[in-house]
Each structure stands twice: as structure tokens, then as C-alpha cells.
Amino acid sequence: MTTDILHAKLKENFGFEKFRPNQEAIIKGILSGEDTLAIMPTGGGKSICFQLPALLFPGITIVISPLIALMKDQVDSLKANGIQACFINSSQTETEQQFYIESIVSNKIKLVYVAPESLSYLENIFNTITVSLIAIDEAHCISAWGHDFRPAYTNLGYLKNRFPSTPMLALTATADKATREDISQQLNLKNPQIFISSFDRKNLSLEVRPALDRVKQIIDFIKEKPNECGIVYCLSRKTTEELAEKLQKIGINAKAYHAGLNSEIRSKTQDEFINDECQVVCATIAFGMGIDKSNVRWVIHYNLPKNIEGYYQEIGRAGRDGLPSETILFESYGDVIQLQKFASEGLNSEVQLAKLERMKQYADALSCRRKILLSYFGELVMENCGNCDICKNPPAFFDGTVIAQKALSAIIRLQENEPLAVIIDFLRGSKNAYIFEKEYQNLKTYGVGIEISWYDWNQYLIQLINLGYCEIAFHQQNKIKLTPFAKKVLFEGEKVQLTTVKKITVDQSEVKEIKKKTVSNSLFETLRKLRYEIAKEENIPAYVIFSDAALRQMETERPMSDEEFLAIEGVGKTKLENYGAIFIKAIIAFQKDKPIKKKKEATTYKETLILFQNGLTVEEIALKRNLGTATIISHLAKLYSDGNEIDLSSFVSEDEISKIKEAQIKLEFPNALKPYFDYLEERISYDKIRIGLAIIEKEYEQNQR
Ligand code: ADP
Ligand code: ZN
């Protein structure tokens, strides 16, 4: 299969101009019958890797996927692109299942999605159908090493024996080596080709903030973007509900989502979010696996995640459409302590604790966060990313030796017997009951740190812990202990570099109800509304029709013909047929109202200019560029007016020019061409008039000088 054919198929069926990294290589491998393991980050574009080959194979492609909700969306997306697909699962009635089975048997379906539990529905027809490809999505679910083990997946190993010559494609976003090997082995893949895509998602900004006044910070953040939806991940169910309530109170359309809610409420919330009806979902990690919403514009972690895999997958739900998206992680020591407790009490505690430690190191990083993240996934990055808080705002170091000495002495005075909060109170000379009860006010170093705020002390102590001078004894009520390195600072004159505490300015004014900003009357909003209405009518998620990225492109490029519309990313043949006319109509109406110069014009003119300078005729250029001759003529006129040295004398005679001039004066310089055409009794063509006017205008300008 040649690259050209694959590209043509990609555009025709999915509307994309080019492949993302590895997609093409994976597809070529599959088409030549190879078993493949594809590791790609969330949003990396896994689906195309089996959807495109499915179109080229004679038989059916079976897609094993763990989530029923996701299947429906994927099938809707395929159908919107004119591809015959269905799913079979336990949510359907027997009649429905029968209907689809028959469609499969009669070769009407190119892709069938099925949950591993429901494979049995297909087994009866295995002998009567040609299975061309088997794709196992979320393949890490097969491995107990992974973070999302599903027992039903372990039965999938028989598929390879049943269909020994059918290529199998396993896909996952979980990269670690143990899981990877486990997947190949358990699925009985034959010498699989392994593709590991870069996990870098450049469009996601990365930011970590101290968890001071989180709710306020979140509200301030959301207020700035009333039309953008996002997810706030919380550790506990209770937090999701409390936060959603607080947001609702001030008029933000927020909902809670967690596994404790009944499935009806959950799927309602999920649907509303997908359809842009609910702006914010406050969720536990139970949310997100089953959604493929491409325009999630931000993801906030209210609490520290348990590990980097989970964190990366969760932030990966933002910006799947490739547009810039924001992520914020709130770090609090309270969370670390709680997570440490969970991890040490749970299964496999050593591994879990180590993973948590890496997460914490990421949050406390003082160098480019993206480098740290990617190195976790085994990628070495040389350049700083420029899109994380550290790159944007590098930490400033100062000599913190005295601060360190005070803190470490305080820990000694308190006999390594108190947690962080008490140490800070002690340093700050607090007069609270606990201090007096213990008579700490009589110890040396009591109050030596009064000039530093509580909040800053907290940050400095955390830095000292990260630097390894002291540590938290999690199994002893979180008492702070010194490490052997502390004595270097206390007695051996070692200098300590600390970083200045970043001031988070939380708007201290009271949280007021958010005034509903009138939705901006941009073309984007107009098209978004249109998309929403169509989605409602057709009962499919809005992003299935067009992604936000596609709407943005329509906004800047303003396509007004089929051909221009087809050039938009995500517009393939079927979408052009189904939605082209109505969107173009909306764009033209908007353009009349609020005209802009199309950005694209500069390049399109230039292309015409180059061809003309190379001696091509107008007809040849039109043919080559797949544009009308009138368009090319208008390009030439414009190019000439803009001062390009081109010879237009062959298009219009001196005599014709003088007639056009005469008309111009008689008609008092009309804007449109039609009056000229009529005045000249239709004897001089529109093309000639257009060019003639450009020449006259130039002459006039030159005479003025
Ligand atoms: P994953 O399953 O890896 O999370 P998807 O297959 O859902 O990712 O793809 C993520 C998004 O990227 C989707 O909106 C999809 O339409 C889009 N996409 C995939 N491949 C391309 C491509 N070659 N060009 C542009 N967009 C693409
Ligand atoms: Zn960076």
C-alpha cells in the first residue's frame, strides 16, 4: 500500500491531512499482516491505527474495548464519517444484537466493537465471517502489572489461536516495560512490532501550585473562561460533591461524579459534559476512561495523584484536539501524608510508595516539569519545554542557611517528636494551647522565626525535606526527624540554597456570583451553537460532528466553498456532504456581517503568482490549482494592485481600457463590476473589467506621485 493511497484514505474518510507520529508505520505493519503493540499517550491517535486498515481489509475488524460508553461514541464518530460500524454488548436487547449479528454476517459492517465479556455473542459466527484484524484497545487491562486490571481481558489469549493468521493490534497508553511484555505474552502476539510514541503533549501547559485556598483559586481560574469546560480531579467522593456544590453556588455549571453515584446520574453527567451542557465535572478518577471528548480545555488536580501514570493519563484528557490546554496540580502536604498512608496499607505497598515518591518529586521539581514527566516514560528531552510553570517562571535561589539552621535546631529542641505544624508554631512563637501545655515557650529557639509567615515556613520546611535534611516519619504520627545530613548544616558550615516562595495571589474579595458573561459573538461561538443544535437533533456528541480545532480553523479561514471546506482538518467526504452546506451558509452569513480578510489569501495569491511567473496561462493555473479561471484572474488583478511586477497587457487592450475608464467616470466609480458590464453592453467580459480596473488604478496612483 503506498503512502499516497493511505493519505488519500485518511483525508477522504477522516478528514485529516497527515498522520500523527507512528500512525502510518503501524498501519503499514498491520496491512502486511504483522502483530503489533502500539503504545501511545492518551489523545495520541490510537483509533486511526485500526480504523483505517479496517477500511482497506476485505473482512471485518473486531475491536475489543473495555467500556461500553466509549463504544457508542466511537461508533457514532465512525458513522459520522460514513463508515459502517456497530457495537455488540449486554446493554442491547436480543433483537438489536440479532440485527447487528446479521449485518456482520452479510458483510455490511467494517468494524464491530465488543467488550471482552460479550465476545461470546460473536463466537457463533466466527466460522462464517472473515476476520481481517483484531484490535485490543486499552490492552494494559490484561496485565495485573498495569493500573487497571480487568479479569475478563485475561481470556483473550485464545483469539490468536483461533485466528492464527489474522493480525492483532494491541493498544495502550501505559508504557512500563513489565506491562508491555505481559501484554504480548498473554495475547500470544507473534514477534510483535512494538511502536512507542512520544508521550509529549506539547499543547498541555503544566503547572503546580501550593494548595493554599484551593477553592478560591479554582473559582478564579474558571471565572476567566466561562465557555471552556474542564475536569477537577479529587481524591475523595466527598470532596467532589462539596466542591461541585461550592461552584454551583456561585453560578458555575458544575457536577460531581464518582463511583458511589448511581449509574443513571453518572451517565447523565457524562452526557451533559460531552455535549457541552455541563461546564465542570468534579470527579474522582472514576471519571474519564469512558469519554473521548476532544475539547476539554483544562484539567485540575485538587489533590496530588497517586502516581505519575495516573496523573499523566488524567491531564491527557485535556486538549485531545491539539489546541492549547491548561493543567494545574495543587500540592499539599496533607495529601502526601494521606496518600502515603493509603499506599503503605494497600497491596504491593513498596511499589506504590515508590511511585508516590516520584509523583511528589515531580510536584516539588525545580527544573522543567515536562522533562521530568517524559523521563519517567523513558524519554530523554534536551530542551526545556517553555510551557510549564518552571520554564515560564524559573525559581530564584537564595542563601537559606540561616533559615535551615533555625528549622533544624527547632526540630532538635522538640526532640524530633512533633509534626510540621507544631514546628512552625514553635518557630513563630505561637501562643496556642498546645505549645503552652507542652511548655515549649521555655525552650531555646522558641520564636526565632517570627519574621517569616506561617505559609512561607511551611514551604521552606518542605524544601528542607526535599533536600534531604529532615524527613517525615509517616508511621509515627508524621513527626519530623532529622537525617544524618542535618548535622552538616548545623555543625559543619554547609550552605543551603532555598528558593523563594512563590506568592499565589488569591483574589481576596468575596466570591460573588459569577455574572454570566454574554457569550461572545464570534464566528466560533456561532458555529459551536450550530454544532450543538445538530448534535441534539442527531443525538450524537457534538465533537463527533466537528472538533473545536476544526471550528477554530473555520473561524480563521472562513471556507465558503466545498473545496475550501474540505481543506479544514477533520472534514472528510461524508462530513462535507452532510454538514458542508449548512456550515458554509453560516460562515457566509457571518462574513457578510463581520467581514475579515481571510488569512489564507496571502498564500493562495502567492501560489498563483509563482505559477504565472513560470509562464502558465490562466487556464493552466486554474486547472493546476483546482480553482476557477475567474478566481485566478481576480488573484492576478489583486497581485498587480499590490505592486507585483506582472504584465497584464495581454488580457485587455488599450481600447478596452479607455472604455472602462469612460464607464468609470460616467458611473461615478461604482464598487461592483456589474454596472460596468451593463454599461459596456456586455461586450467586455468581467475578467477584462477586473484587470482593466486594476491597471487604471495603478496608473492613477503613479500619476499622483
Ligand atoms: P487515543 O485513543 O490515543 O486517546 P484518539 O484515537 O481518540 O486518541 O485520537 C485523539 C484525537 O486526535 C481525536 O480527536 C482524533 O480525531 C484526533 N486525531 C487522530 N489522528 C489524527 C491525525 N492524523 N490528524 C489529526 N487529528 C487526529
Ligand atoms: Zn518546562
Features:
alpha/beta; Arc Repressor Mutant, subunit A; seven-stranded parallel beta sheet; Rossmann fold; 4 domains; binds adenosine-5'-diphosphate
How would you explain this protein's 3D organization?
This protein has 32 helices and 17 strands. The two termini are 61 Å apart. The chain has four domains: 3-196, 3-Layer(aba) Sandwich (Rossmann fold); 204-392, P-loop containing nucleotide triphosphate hydrolases (Rossmann fold); 397-499, Arc Repressor Mutant, subunit A (Orthogonal Bundle); 523-704, no CATH class. Strand 5, helix 7 and strand 6 form a beta-alpha-beta unit. Helix 30 (654-666) crosses helix 32. 47% of the residues lie in helices and 11% in strands. It is globular and about 110 Å long. With 705 residues, the protein is an alpha/beta fold. Strands 3-4-2-5-6-1-7 form a seven-stranded parallel beta sheet, sandwiched between helices. The protein binds adenosine-5'-diphosphate (ADP) and zinc ion (ZN). Adenosine-5'-diphosphate (ADP) binds at residues 16, 19-20, 23, 40, 42-48, 292, 294, 320-321, 547, 569.
Helix and strand layout, with pairings?
Blueprint: H1 3-14, H2 23-31, E1 36-39, H3 47-56, E2 60-64, H4 68-80, E3 85-88, H5 94-105, E4 111-114, H6 120-123, E5 131-136, H7 158-162, E6 168-172, H8 177-186, E7 193-196, E8 204-210, H9 214-223, E9 229-233, H10 237-249, E10 254-257, H11 263-274, E11 280-283, E12 296-301, H12 308-315, E13 325-331, H13 333-345, H14 349-363, H15 369-376, H16 389-392, E14 397-399, H17 401-413, H18 420-427, H19 433-437, H20 454-467, E15 470-473, E16 479-482, H21 486-491, E17 497-499, H22 523-538, H23 542-545, H24 548-557, H25 562-566, H26 573-593, H27 601-613, H28 618-625, H29 629-641, H30 654-666, H31 674-679, H32 686-704
Parallel strand pairs: 1-6, 1-7, 2-4, 2-5, 3-4, 5-6, 8-13, 9-11, 9-12, 10-11, 12-13
Antiparallel strand pairs: 14-17, 15-16
Helix pairs in contact: 2-3, 13-14, 17-18, 18-20, 22-24, 22-26, 27-29, 28-29, 29-32, 30-32
The structure holds adenosine-5'-diphosphate and zinc ion.
